[in-house]
Amino acid sequence: MLDIPYTFELNAPGFVPSRYDNHIRRTLTSMRGQYHDVAAYEAMLAGGDALLYEVYELARPHESGEVLHGISIVHPGKVGDEYYMTKGHFHTVLETAEIYICLAGQGVMVMETPEGDWSVEALTPGRVLYVPPRWAHRSVNTGTADLVTLFAYPGHAGHDYGTIEQQGFRKLLVERDGLPEIVDNPRWGGEDREKGRRGEGEKG
Ligand code: F6R
Ligand code: ZN
After folding, report:
1. Structural contact between residues 112 and 136, judged by C-beta atoms closer than 8 angstroms
2. What percentage of residues in the chain have a pLDDT greater than 90?
3. What are the residues whose beta carbons fall under 8 Å from the beta carbon of 116, sequence distance 6 or more?
4. Ligand 1 atom index nearest CA of 157
């Protein structure tokens, strides 16, 4: 890890950073239980453990004062009628925000608070999204090419994946008549969201 100022390049079309420290690859198995069409999920998995998204991180200390940053690439595709997406998470320190800049592709960020408020914002090249403190976030690729975003968030934020794993986000992004549509997640209860939160620290 460098402790002097540094730069790196993000070059089209791939946008893999010219330097990075961690490369995380998320496949279908890491999304077990998250797609609403369980039969479609199992059928797809039987054909192989498809790569859904990748994250390139620059290593910085996970402490207050630092800004963690990197590139997220969600590949195009669907499980049944539901688009490829990230696991999604709350930050363990709930009062921490995040900023995303979309570099390529077409998609949305699905967000919600422990109180049950929700929001879906479009991600298109050049668009900047501010995710305020308290909002869980998941990127969804609704297009036909890679969805590439640059993200930055406080070093002490941490990741709580467990709360989302329990019942998903309140809203799902599915394809209807060839177009993305926001629909209710039948698995989402809305009860005890705050009580159910649990911290997990690193990306998991
Ligand atoms: C960090 C953050 C992004 C995501 C990345 C992958 O707080 O929001 O770096 O970690 O887009 O998504 P997850 O972590 O939900 O698998
Ligand atoms: Zn985050």
Report:
1. yes
2. 90
3. 170, 190, 193
4. 7
CA of 159, closest atom in ligand 1: 7
Contact 156, 140 (CB under 8 A): no
DSSP strand pairing (78-79 vs 171-176): unpaired
Ligand 2 centroid – CA 131 distance (Å): 8
**pTM to 2 decimal places:** 0.93
Report d(CA 26, CA 120) in Å as an integer. 22
Q: Tell me the per-residue pLDDT of 12-38, one tens digit each, with 9 for 90 and over.
A: 999 999 999 999 999 999 999 999 999
Question: How many Å lie between the centroid of ligand 2 and the Cα of residue 179?
Answer: 27
3-state DSSP assignment of residue 128: strand
The Å distance, Cα 203 to ligand 1 centre, comes to: 8
Ligand 1 pocket, CB under 6 A? 55, 70, 72, 86-89, 98, 137, 139, 151, 153, 203
103-to-116, 119, 123, 148 alpha-carbon distances in Å: 29, 21, 9, 5
Ligand 1 centroid to 46 CA: how many Å?
26
The number of angstroms, rounded, from the C-alpha of 179 to the middle of its chain's C-alpha atoms is 21
Element (H, E) at 46: helix 38-46
List beta partners, residue 111: 119, 137
- For residue 99 the two structure tokens come to 């900023």
